[in-house]
Amino acid sequence: xxxxxxxxxxxxxxxxxxxxxxxxxxxxxxxxxxxxxxxxxxxxxxxxxxxxxxxxxxxxxxxxxxxxxxxxxxxxxxxxxxxxxxxxxxxxxxxxxxxxxxxxxxxxxxxxxxxxxxxxxxxxxxxxxxxxxxxxxxxxxxxxxxxxxxxxxxxxxxxxxx
Length: 162
Description:
Elements: H1 3-34, H2 53-63, H3 65-83, H4 88-108, H5 114-130, H6 132-139
Helix pairs in contact: 1-3, 1-5, 3-4, 4-5
């Protein structure tokens, strides 16, 4: 196997591994939000002298079922789009802001999953770099060619009626 073929296969292996890892992680977390279990629900009393910042965050996110469903829908949508090769780039574009938000929350509220969410964010960013040429074509190289004038050289034919 020559070097070029090896690098192409390695690239595709990395992309596929990242896509599936990201998708499975978000699918699990999305389902966990639909079926109550990830966040604390119900009434709560928060004591800032005893309780952790993570407990505050968990109570906040568990307060609204609608918000949980909204987050779950975003995570599951991104996961499903990542699994399908033709929609994987769109899935990653949806995935990245969600995982960046989760990573920031993990650091701000001292949630122990910081290492995992940081890894997921880095994998998502790496996937965007792998798709750089495609994204550049879509967002920066597309030319808008719109005809705004009406052609004036219309052919007029005379019709003889007998």
